[in-house]
From TrEMBL:
Originating species: Natranaerobius trueperi
UniProt-recorded name of the protein: Prepilin-type cleavage/methylation domain-containing protein
Pfam families associated with the record: N_methyl
NCBIfam families named in the record: IV_pilin_GFxxxE
Annotated signal peptide: none
Database matches in SUPFAM superfamilies: Pili subunits
Keyword line: Membrane, Transmembrane, Transmembrane helix
Spans through the membrane: 12-32
InterPro entries: N_methyl_site (IPR012902), Pilin-like (IPR045584)
Statement: the UniProt record of this protein carries the keyword Transmembrane helix: yes
Keyword Transmembrane helix: yes
Highest taxon, organism lineage: Bacteria
Length: 160
């Protein structure tokens, strides 16, 4: 009976494996900040779209039910939520972590409870500019025209 030695020389050496791991670590360290910033921008975009849709919902509910509908932004407590006051229900919506209100100019008389009120004909009681920001300082705005009630999204503060 013949016993043969198995000499398997296939595979990678420790040096080659460490070289590949170090190369992957360098690539990840270069790309990580850009990936995090991109994710933060996507989260801000999502919150911006949600706020825009909620304002349109409040306006449409006022038109549909022919009753006042409003959205309020309470100053007391954390500054990361808003309240929808619809004719048939009240709903609290929270902004995602890391997103906060940066601008709340609703033109209302109550400084501590700014709100946007839509009349039964869908026209707001005044114009508004609502801005939200992420941790990096990126800001997006939702603007409500005082006369027409048009709701639009904006990347820049209106008037600038």
């Amino acid at each position: 009976m013949k016993i043969s030695k198995v000499n398997n020389t296939r595979g990678f050496t420790l040096i080659e494996t460490l070289g590949v791991i170090i190369l992957i670590a360098i690539i990840i360290s270069i790309l990580y900040p850009n990936v995090v910033k991109t994710i933060d921008i996507f989260v801000l975009d999502g919150a911006h779209n949600k706020l825009y849709q909620d304002l349109r919902l409040v306006k449409m509910q006022a038109l549909k039910t022919e009753q006042l509908s409003r959205i309020s932004f309470p100053y007391f407590g954390p500054q990361n939520y808003y309240v929808l006051h619809l004719p048939n229900r009240t709903k609290i919506n929270y902004l995602p972590d890391g997103i906060n209100f940066s601008t709340l100019n609703t033109g209302g008389s109550d400084f501590y409870n700014p709100e946007v009120v839509f009349a039964p004909d869908g026209v707001p009681w005044g114009g508004a500019t609502i801005g939200i920001s992420n941790k990096q300082g990126d800001t997006k705005y939702v603007v409500i025209a005082a006369v027409s009630g048009r709701i639009r999204k904006s990347e820049v503060l209106p008037g600038f």
